[in-house]
Amino acid sequence: MARFAEVNKPHARRAQSNPLGLTLSPRGAGGAGAGRVAVIDLHYQSVRTARVVLDEMLPAALASHAEVWVITGTGHHVAKRTHQKSSERGVLFDSVKEYLAECAATYRIGKDWSGRAGAFLVLPGR
Question: Domain of 84?
């Protein structure tokens, strides 16, 4: 969790000074967390520690925000055939996708400007 806290400091500072108000969620109309977006950046986490972070952080973030961006990175900079890389993506992306499926979470896959998947937009349960 210490590594997670360090990586997420910039997101926390940004949220205090300039909360992300743009939302794709229908909850943006009102209710708890209306229009608020949280960011959980999992860069530098392992597959094992990412699950620990998600177990601890995701339920609270979903309870208090209209949506949550979970950032894994694309894995495009990692050398092939390592413990960090699957066939096309980083193993962290695949692990988080599996985690979200196990939780029956509603999510959309976020892609960067070149079309590489590296994030998930997670919406609270309906």
Answer: 2-123
Range 73-76, long-range pairs (CB < 8 A, 24+ positions): 73/42, 73/43, 73/118, 74/112, 74/116, 74/117, 74/118, 75/118, 76/116
Whether pTM > 0.90 for this model: the answer is no
How far, in Å, are 16, 80, 108 from residue 93 at the CA level?
Answer: 28, 15, 13
Q: How many domains does the chain have?
A: 1
Q: For Cα atoms 35, 63, 17, give the angle at the middle one, nearest 5 degrees.
A: 50
> Cα(41)–Cα(97) distance, rounded to whole angstroms?
14
Q: Which CATH number is 105's domain given?
A: 3.30.1370.110
Instruction: Report the length, in residues, of the chain.
Output: 126
Residue among 39, 43, 34, 33 at smallest CA distance from 11: 39
Q: For residue 6, give every residue at least 6 positions away whose Cβ sits within 8 Å of its Cβ, in sequence order, or none.
A: none
pLDDT digits (tens, 9 = 90+) for 66-82: 899 999 987 655 555 55
CB atoms within 10 A of CB 118: 19
